[in-house]
Amino acid sequence: MKLYDGGRAPNPRRVRVFLAEKGIEVPLVPVDMNELGHKAPEIEQLNPLMRLPVLVLDDGSVLTESVAICRYFEETHPEPPLFGRDALGKARVEMWQRRMELNLMMPVAQAFRHIHPAMREWEVPQIAEWGEANKPKALEFLALFDADLGDRPFVAGEEFSIADITGMIAIDFMKPARLEVPESCANVRRWYAAMKARPSAEA
Amino acid sequence: MKLYDGGRAPNPRRVRVFLAEKGIEVPLVPVDMNELGHKAPEIEQLNPLMRLPVLVLDDGSVLTESVAICRYFEETHPEPPLFGRDALGKARVEMWQRRMELNLMMPVAQAFRHIHPAMREWEVPQIAEWGEANKPKALEFLALFDADLGDRPFVAGEEFSIADITGMIAIDFMKPARLEVPESCANVRRWYAAMKARPSAEA
Fold first, then answer.
1. Residue B81 domain-assigned?
2. What residues have CB less than 8 Å from A121, skipping those under 6 apart?
């Protein structure tokens, strides 16, 4: 088994943090995305979408999409469960995972890709107006998330889950997108600090 | 249990098709999204994001996000499995589900929301250039999907799954976005026709 990894980019990091929380070690094949290594023929052959990470199993099976790779390890290494326990718990993790992706990670990524000068050749056409339009979307969601979170320890309830990983990495990604968690979002700031203090945050 | 439903919009439809494939009947509460019923206080109280569908369980628990609602029913009604069977199968469904969402449904939705005159008050600001930029993204993905699909019966393998539902509904959504599956994508056209012939497509 080997995992083609993409360094500091958000999606490769999601898988590495997930593996760290599970205590699973997988041999990594580093790919330098700054050098457009994810567009090399070796990667394109594995994933025609030319995105990372990519997991190759011992039988040659290929899995792409960070959450699909995490799902594979959830099934093969069920403890600790990071996608929830019972029916309602699993559905709640999925709900928050999607809220974090669609309402936070996605607008932050759009703001970054459509405004940051380093993304000019990655996002064509780069449309600054669309990038700017995404900033309030992310901030509006943070206000709703803060109100819902209250003093709960984790995004989806009483246990750490993949939704915490996605949320932490989305907030990390706000920095290059030149966004900040507002002071008024005290619950989000408390939760984020706790996530950053976990050893897995360094993965 | 009751499901606040949003009619013909893609996400509410995903859940209804899923329920039809499972053979599950859930009492529906129709909400008229054309009349902005999803922004009424009753819905906002259940889902501060003001999106549909919303599932309310008998104990008052609330689930939002179409895929999270489907996940709940997968757990409570496992047969037939629509999220895959073993570890690799489940990961493959998740991979294709995400590819269908992120590379097809999402660009089609962006094209629709940022170009269609009926969306002027829904998507503010409406940025036609961004809508147009999404059309080639959807078409490029369809070409890759066609090459991968070959003569396989279903998106993620030999069995029908939620990825087929997402794919079918994304392609249905191409019509109001004024996009067409190219003639050259013969495998996609064959697969789509088979999906539309299933009774669940009417749900």
1. no
2. none
